[in-house]
Structure to design on (385 residues):
């Protein structure tokens, strides 16, 4: 319990320590609770929970190529989680990451096909910029509607997701349609090799331990760089401070001279730019063309990653890797047990709910302690004076 004589610096340090300890306690408790619930479900299927958990971990970490596979799964989830988290810091719920990255696939494909005269060191950045620009344009529509008309971003972004799917389908059927022989699957022409993202194994000389079937590219370190940049933006830049102020209390932010509408539009555009990078590992790291069977669902998976990572750029990559471990572990579950692979989806949902609830309980306890300390300080200060 704090006293009035406690130095402010020590009090600040102790509050930070209590907050960190509470965060770790909440995380550990959430994992333990989720593991217990998962064990009950696994036992109901007449399987050994310890064997199941060991199988998931073994299939994810036993070899270098398994770890690379996990990182491949985590790469788009990091971008998606960042896109959701940045908007959430401003009090906005960007459900439209799904549609934004789909549009980003279209604009990236157009850049790869129509800018093929550029050398590789220019074409790959051009493809990245085109994907980000397309997603930003798509994100600007619900952002402007939010600021100008008050239309809720959840409704508008969900509607924009459906429009994005139709728009990309039209593009594959018309301006981006393959000029070769009619194929079973509608798709674009193959991208030039210069437009493909270099592989992680080829860049760092790991071809002997990471096979070509694992499509881990330089987009993974780029995702980590994006986490660092988002952290710098949120906690070291004026706009980031304004975004967090608007998300915490829009009324107080407006009273402090912050333009709420401008901050919301800017952060929505940043969220859209991050969303544009979500599907690129599949597009220019794996397939090398845009087909009608492009990967979907990554935008909605980013919501889970953001919540599990507490909307913090430091927690999001860890959450993405954790989900990557579960995705990789599905193969082990299918081979070694009689459990349905959907069991890991259930465990993922239980874990996310556990983390959210545990953090909220810890936050309430910490707030109550701080209120008690303030009350004690106010009552003892006059007596000491």
């Amino acid at each position: 319990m704090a006293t009035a004589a406690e130095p402010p610096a020590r009090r600040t340090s102790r509050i930070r320590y209590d907050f960190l300890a509470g965060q770790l306690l909440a995380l550990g408790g959430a994992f333990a609770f989720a593991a217990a619930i998962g064990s009950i479900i696994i036992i109901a299927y007449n399987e050994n929970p310890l064997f199941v958990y060991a199988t998931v971990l073994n299939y994810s970490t036993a070899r270098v190529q398994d770890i690379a596979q996990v990182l491949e799964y985590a790469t788009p989830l990091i971008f998606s989680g960042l896109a959701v988290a940045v908007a959430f810091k401003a009090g906005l719920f960007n459900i439209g990451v799904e549609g934004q990255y789909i549009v980003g696939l279209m604009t990236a494909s157009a850049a790869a096909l129509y800018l093929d005269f550029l050398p590789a060191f220019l074409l790959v950045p051009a493809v990245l910029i085109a994907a980000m620009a397309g997603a930003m344009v798509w994100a600007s529509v619900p952002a402007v509607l939010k600021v100008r008309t008050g239309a809720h971003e959840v409704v508008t972004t969900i509607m924009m997701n459906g429009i994005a799917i139709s728009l990309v389908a039209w593009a594959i059927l018309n301006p981006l349609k393959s000029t070769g022989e009619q194929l079973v699957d509608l798709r674009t022409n193959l991208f030039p090799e210069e437009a493909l993202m270099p592989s992680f194994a080829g860049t760092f000389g790991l071809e002997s331990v990471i096979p070509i079937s694992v499509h881990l590219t330089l987009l993974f370190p780029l995702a980590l760089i994006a986490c660092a940049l988002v952290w710098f933006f949120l906690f070291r830049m004026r706009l980031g401070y304004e975004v967090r102020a608007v998300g915490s209390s829009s009324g107080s932010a407006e009273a402090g001279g912050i333009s709420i509408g401008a901050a919301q539009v800017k952060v929505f555009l940043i969220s859209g730019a991050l969303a544009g990078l979500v599907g690129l590992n599949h597009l220019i790291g794996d397939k090398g063309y845009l087909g009608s069977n492009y990967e979907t669902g990554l935008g909605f998976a980013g919501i889970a990653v953001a919540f599990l990572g507490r909307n913090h750029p430091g927690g999001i990559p860890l959450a993405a890797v954790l989900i990557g471990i579960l995705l990789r572990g599905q193969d082990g579950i299918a081979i070694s047990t009689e459990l349905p692979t959907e069991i890991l989806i259930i465990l993922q949902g239980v874990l996310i709910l556990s983390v959210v609830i545990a953090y909220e309980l810890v936050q309430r306890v910490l707030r109550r302690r701080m209120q008690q300390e303030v009350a004690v300080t106010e009552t003892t200060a006059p007596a000491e004076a």
